Amino acid sequence: MDAIITTAKTWLTDFFDAETKKEIKNLLENNTEELTERFYKNLEFGTGGMRGVMGIGTNRINKYTLGKSTQGLSNYLKKTYPDELIKVVIAYDCRHNSDTLSQVVAEVLSANGIQVYRFSELRTTPELSFAVRHLSCHAGIVLTASHNPPEYNGYKVYWGDGGQIVPPQDAEIIEEIDSLDFEQINFDAKPELIKSIDTEVDEAFFAESVKNGSFNAAGKDNFKIVFTSIHGTSITAIPEVLKRAGYAHVTIIEEQAKPDGNFPTVKSPNPEEPEALAMAIAKAEEIGADMVVGTDPDSDRLGIAVRNLDGQMELLNGNQTMVLMTKFLLDQYKKKGMKGNEFIATTIVSTPMMEEMAKAYGVEFKTALTGFKWIGKMIKDFPDSTFVGGGEESFGYMVGDFVRDKDAVTSTLLACEIAAQAKANGSSFYKDLIQCYVDFGFYREKLISITKKGMSGADEIKQMLKDFKENPVSSVQGSKLRWIEDYNTSIAKNVQTGEEVGIDLPKSNVLIYETEDGTRIAARPSGTEPKVKFYISTNARLPKAGDFKSVNSQLDSKLEGIIAELNL
C-alpha cells in the first residue's frame, strides 16, 4: 500500500492540472480502496494499444496516460522516419470523452512536429484504417473501447499499411512509452499542424466499400433490412453505403440511431449479445423484414439475424456469418477464374469449418492468433498472395484488403448481397448456410465468457487458466483427448503417442484441447476485458439439408453436455 500511496502522490506536482490533484487528495484522504484500484499498476499499452476504465490514475484512461502513450509513439515515429514530415490520422467513436481525448492526442502529436489529420466528427474504425493509406500517413489512431461498457475508453494504433501495429513495432513502441515519465509529455500544441478532415475521405471510403462489397445481387427491390447502429458510429456510414448499393428498403431503429456513450437502450452495445439486437428483431417481425444488422460502437463487428426454417428471426454467431460470407466470395473468385494465389484466413479459436472449405476450393488457408491485427499482418507478409476474405468468431469480418482491420461497413453490404441473391433464387441466407454444413461438415460452436473484475479478478483468471493447463481432461463426452496445443510453449503434443509438433505462431496465453472426434476446447484471457474465455467447437456429418433439425439438436445437446462436464 505504501508504494501505491507514493505513486499517487507523484500526481500532486504542478505538472498535473488542479482538478486531477484535487481528486487525488480526496482519494488519499477518504477512499484508499479506490485509490488502490487506480494506482496498483500502470494501464498497459498492449500489443495494439490500450483500453480501460476512464478516470484519474495510472490504471485509468485519461489525458496523462494517453498523453504518455502518444509521446512515446511520437518519439518512435521520429526515430523511425528521421528525415520525413510524419503524418498521423485520428478518428474517434461515440464514447464519453472520445472527442476531447482525441484532441489531446492530436495536440501531443502536433507538439512533436507531426502533421495530424483529425476527423471533425465521429467515424468508424474501418474508415480510420482506410484513411491511413488513403492519406499516405505513417500511422493512425482511433479512440474507442469497441463494445466494452460505457465507463471504458481506449486507443488503438495503426501503422502505415492500415493494419494495427504488430511485431516488431509494438514491442519497440511499448519500450519507448515505458521509458518516459509523465512530465516528459509535450502538451504544447501547434494548431497549424492539426487539420480537420471529413467528406473527402468519406466519399473515397464509401466508394471502396460499395466496390468491394457489392456483387450486383438480384432481388434488392424485394429485400427488407432493419439496421441498428446501437448508438455507435456506423450510422455515419452503413445507411449511405446500402443506399449507394441499391437497397431502398432499410429501416433504421431511430431510438438507437443517435450516437450516445451511455448506450441507454441496451445492457451492452455488443452485437454478440441477443439483447443488443432485441429492438431491431422486434421491428423486423413487425414489418416482415428479411434481415437484421447491428454493429458495435466503432463499427468493426456486426451481428446478423435472419429468418430460420420456421420463419422466425434468429441471431447467427460470428462463425456462421463468416463461413457463408467466405463461401460467397470464393464462388465469385471461382466464376472469374482462380489464379492459384488466393487465401482465406481465420483465428485459432474460430470454427475449423473454414479450413475444410479452403480444402474444397483448393485455396490456401491461414490461421492466426486471436486479434484481427494478425490477419491484417498476413496481407503485408504475403504481398504476392490475394486475400479473399476472412474473419473471427467474435463477429468480425474483412472483405478483401482495402481495409486492413475487421470492417462491419463492407461486411454488412456483403451479407445483404448474399441474402438478397439467395431470396431471389428461392433460397435464403439460412438455407444457404445449411448447405455449407452439408458440403463442408456441420460445425457448431459455443463461447463461455467469465468476468472477474479488479485486482483480485486478475488473480482469479490466472488461477483458472493455470488449473485448466495443469489438470487436462482425459476425455470430453466420451471422446478421448488426443492433442494439447500450448501456445505459451509453442508446442502441440499428441498425448496418445507422445509426438510433439512446433506451433509456428507467436507465443500467446492460449491452451487448446482436441479429442478424437474433433471436439476442440480453447481457453484464453481476454485482451481487452477482465474475462476468461472458453471456446467450444464440435461437429457431425449432415448427410442432407432435410436432416438439419435433428443433427442440430444432437449438437446442441452435446455442447450443453460439454459445458456441464467442464463446470463452466
Main traits of this protein?
4 domains, phosphopentomutase activity, 38% helix, 17 helices, Alpha-D-Glucose-1,6-Bisphosphate, Chain A, domain 3, 8-stranded antiparallel β-sheet, 6-stranded mixed β-sheet, single chain, 568 residues, alpha/beta
Question: Could you characterize the architecture of this molecule?
Answer:
InterPro entries: A-D-PHexomutase_a/b/a-I, A-D-PHexomutase_a/b/a-I/II/III, A-D-PHexomutase_a/b/a-II, A-D-PHexomutase_a/b/a-III, A-D-PHexomutase_C_sf, A-D-PHexomutase_CS, Alpha-D-phosphohexomutase_SF. One of its GO terms (molecular function) is phosphopentomutase activity. It comes from Croceitalea dokdonensis DOKDO 023. It holds the Pfam family PGM_PMM_II. There is one protein chain. The protein is α/β, with parallel strands linked by helices and 568 residues long. The chain has helices at 2-9, 18-30, 32-39, 63-80, 98-111, 125-134, 169-178, 199-213, 238-244, 278-287, 318-336, 353-361, 373-381, 408-424, 429-440, 454-470, 548-565, and strands spanning 49-53, 87-92, 115-119, 139-143, 152-159, 194-197, 225-228, 250-252, 291-295, 302-307, 313-315, 342-347, 364-368, 386-392, 396-399, 442-451, 475-476, 479-486, 491-494, 500-502, 511-515, 520-525, 531-540. It folds into four domains: 1-40, no CATH class; 49-197, Alpha-D-Glucose-1,6-Bisphosphate, subunit A, domain 3 (Alpha-D-Glucose-1,6-Bisphosphate, Chain A, domain 3), CATH 3.40.120; 222-440, Alpha-D-Glucose-1,6-Bisphosphate, Chain A, domain 3, CATH 3.40.120.10; 442-565, TATA-Binding Protein (2-Layer Sandwich). α4 (63-80) packs parallel to α5, α4 (63-80) packs across α7 and α8 crosses α9. The longest helix has 19 residues, at 318-336. The chain is globular and about 75 Å long.
